[in-house]
Specification:
111 residues; mainly beta; six-stranded antiparallel β-sheet; 6 strands; 71% strand
Length: 111
């Protein structure tokens, strides 16, 4: 299932120097989810969320994630998730402009 939404976001952040900054951002959310409940169960989900500041200076932020959850055998799952975040102008001086993660997990669901 594909879902697309857009809107305005009010963003208030506090930096490490206790300075508050508020901005208005245009936001877009594009999400995709795929569920296959035949044997084995497979769930794929992802999203992309760009944010563009329309007040208070030039700033672009971007959040994204991709996840797969796969049933290895009855109620026992393996999953992996990747996310990436970008911020062109972080309120914290010297902060990295991006963040990312790759994780793996094993789980069991009790029914």
């Amino acid at each position: 299932m594909l879902a697309i939404s857009a809107g305005l976001v009010s963003n208030t952040e506090e930096s490490q120097s206790d300075t508050l900054s508020t901005s208005l951002e245009a936001a877009l959310d594009v999400s995709y989810n795929l569920f296959s409940f035949s044997n084995p169960d497979i769930i794929i989900s992802s999203y992309v969320k760009p944010f563009v500041t329309i007040s208070g200076g030039k700033r672009f932020r971007f959040d994204s994630q991709f996840q797969i959850k796969w049933e290895i055998f009855n109620n026992f799952y393996f999953s992996t998730k990747v996310y990436y975040q970008y911020d062109s102008n972080s309120p914290t001086v010297g902060a990295s402009t991006f963040d990312y993660s790759l994780s793996f997990s094993i789980s069991y669901t009790f029914n």
